[in-house]
Amino acid sequence: MASKTYRVGVIGFGLSAKVFHIPLIEVVPEFQLYAVVQRNPKPGDDAQKVHPGIKSYRSTEELVKDSAVDVVVVTTTPESHFSLTKLALESGKHVIVEKPFTPTFKEADELIKIAEQNQRLIAVYQNRRWDADFLTLSDLIGKGSLGRVVEFETHFDRHRPQATTSGWKTGARPGGGAIYDLGTHLIDQAVVIFGMPKRVTGFIGSQSENNTTGYEDSFTVLLHYEVMLATVKAAVVSPEVEQLRYWVRGDKGSYKKFYLDCQEDQLKDGRKPGDIDFGVEPEERRGTLTTIQDGQPFKEACPNVEPPTYTAFYSQFAKALSGEAEVPVRAQDAASVIRLIELARLSSAEGRTIDIYDKK
Questions:
Q1: DSSP string, 278-308
Q2: pLDDT for position 1
Q3: Statement: the pTM of the whole predicted model exceeds 0.90
């Protein structure tokens, strides 16, 4: 018996839709790219011309009135996520929301309740759970190769010391700043492995020169666990040939990795899952595993696990729609990440460490 094909409507036709969603929708057989909401098509940027045969709508209201649409993917800017997701859920559509889920925990919690009331599925696109190096690190920790982990560092550093003055990722806006853009990925990865921390310390601001936009381009967040400290960090002043990605230390070994996962660059170059070596990093970018052997540190290259690639998100969502699996990223988990971001911002503003269970 053939599996059901779900018709997908994508809200937005910017980088997120073009690079991170539509190429994956097109390679998962259970999904059909059915429609795109694009308010202002241009001759060189028209979804209907790039993807002949789809429906092109000018508003989300038009899209959700289409009874043929099964799944709506929200790829717009963060401050619109709540209203668009609410509209889609209340119109009877299942929803995938680009990260960050919402600017506030209150909004995230309300969307979870709306999804439950309407018996619709909702998932948040935390695609970096399927980075090959993150899966490799998770495997090492799960197998006990590092022993008792005491320090976990996850970085997204770049050297861009001049302030950006154009584009939507500038200025102070709800759900804006590097902590929402990049921090959602890094915090989510820490929580996936270790669960929720007990306390949070945040340092959030701008490192770029002459930044008058109000955009907070950098952050360091400390997640305090019982015996372990996770450091979550993004910087724009980092003049390095190789940017650190992970440094994780335990009493039996450590894992160090430079460079970001290659899937984003490959997707931007027009490559797709299924292409030869998609998601496979060059050998010279492998992480290193250092263990204690005969009382001495021994370092060796640590190949990544075979990458399932970002298509795993959409493949699992298809299974969730048919009742065979949970959604790939639960909205409840994404809401917890937003809560940690809010607490990190409060910590930074007040200059104190915050207990996440403190109700004050």
A1: TTPPPGGG-EEEEEEETTEEEEEEEPPPPP-
A2: 45
A3: yes
